[in-house]
Amino acid sequence: MKLSRHKFIRRLLNYYRTHFDIEIPFIILIDGTFAFEALQWKIQIDEQLKAYLETEQIICSTTLCAIKETELLGGIGFGAMLILKQYDIVKCNHYPSISAEKCFQQILIKDTTKKYFLASQSLSLREYCHNHRPDLPTMLITHNAINLERPSLNSRSIVEEKKKERTNLSKHESNVLKKRKHELNLDQDENNGEKKTKKKHGINPLSMKKKKTINSINQTVNNKSEKMTRRRTRQLRMSSHLKEHLKELQKTFSIKEFFHKE
Ligand SMILES: [Zn+2]
């Protein structure tokens, strides 16, 4: 058995487990057509199913209607009948017996166990399952081996709808959660923890010039005038050395007197 075949079957089983909750033991409902085909290819159904589905927990089963159908075929159906007679009988309560196809349809439509697989070469029976039991895996014999069919379009569309419902629900839930968090002031903590939002800072006080009031204007004028006077006083100031020199000059030479004389 190739690895890709294992991967394929695991993926399929996982699909049915995840979306439709199928569970072990798997009950494989087998009709005369499947048994007949297995005989042609010398397939040991029970052994190959265990290897293929990777579990020992497999119950091969059939109905009395299916066995009766192989009996009615005479010699051609003899081998298939012997195979079916080894299996567990699912009670169908059809007296007199009906066709295996109708019998299986009625059993599968009533079933709620999530354990059944259908094994049949009948396309119409498998299609019935695809339409009415999209949660149920179907299998047939092709290429000298038992093969699970890919999920039908019907099955996949149901899964897609389920996914949508789940996401819608979670959206609703998340909205309720948000509202509740807001009420409890938990959303602020969350914001602090996850992303820092830019806080609105005020204007930098250092970059602001104070508005000039009349008082402040007067104050600056006073300061300026004070500086001016200071400057003036400085200008009038003379060094002691110079003062002394002037005094000496006044003593010896009076300019005023000089002009008066003239
Ligand atoms: Zn029946």
TrEMBL record:
Family annotation (Gene3D superfamilies): 5'-nuclease
Top-rank lineage group of the source organism: Eukaryota
Q: Where is the composition biased (Basic and acidic residues)?
A: 161-176
Q: Residue ranges of region Disordered?
A: 161-205
Ranges annotated as biased composition (Basic residues): 196-205
A Pfam family the protein falls into: Fcf1
Keyword Nucleus in record: yes
Swiss-Prot/TrEMBL keywords? Nucleus
**Protein name per UniProt:** Uncharacterized protein
- Record the organism: Rotaria socialis
What cellular component GO annotations does this protein have?
small-subunit processome
Any signal peptide, and if so, which residues? Answer: none
